[in-house]
Amino acid sequence: MDPTALAVASERLLRPGARVLAGGERPGAGRTLLVRPAAVPIAPLALALQACTTDADWARYAVRRVEVEAGFGLDPEQARALVRRTRERTGGLGLRLWLAAGPDGDLVGAVGAFLLPADAGTARLQEVDVFPGHRGRGHGDALLEAVRRRLAADGVGRLLVGADEDDWPLGWYRGRGFRPVARVSRAAPQRSHGDDGEAAPGEEQR
To answer: Are the beta carbons of 159 and 148 closer than 8 angstroms?
Structure first.
């Protein structure tokens, strides 16, 4: 499959109702899907990643996710519901979530990805977050580089990501070598309050 078809297929795994937008629809009305080669470095330094697998790992992640989503107006229970859905996706979509800790052991961020059933050499990034208190220090680049290295070592050759057209992460990803390949609608997500920007930012945009 070509990159555009793969990108749209990945979006529909997350939001079955997503439709490809025609060129005439107003800018900012949807989401942009982007792609970049996994073999090309993003940054010279990378954070160390630890797989989020145990109940204790998920509890640590939930504490920080509550802080993240508070900045978007979600209460703690709504944020914990997002964490539960993310954990469910580790089974349904084969999503892998990694935690990144600083030298003092405090969690700096998290990043996830799943392989596309139609092409195991393509991965869709999800849950890209640098946590409050650690932003503005270049950790976002180091987090992306870390997951790039991890996925490339596993044989992934292509990375996909999505970003709302009217939000800053779109430009941030473009500045890191991702190029747009499709525009899609902001279809209703398969979780309680949004996936990554239209209602509850959190999957692909920090």
So the answer is: yes
Position with higher pLDDT, 103 vs 116: 116
CA distance 179 to 160: 9
In CATH, 3-184 is 3.40.630.30: yes
Cβ 33 vs Cβ 162: under 8 Å: yes
Among candidate residues 57, 1, 53, 36, the one with its CA nearest the CA of residue 148: 36
What three-state secondary structure class fits 20?
A: strand
CB 99, CB 110: distance < 8 Å = yes
Contact 68, 79 (CB under 8 A): yes
pTM: 0.88
Residue type, 126: Q
**DSSP character for 123?**
E
Interval 104-137: pLDDT, tens: 888 999 999 999 999 999 999 999 999 999 999 9
Q: Are 197 and 205 in contact (CB under 8 A)?
A: yes
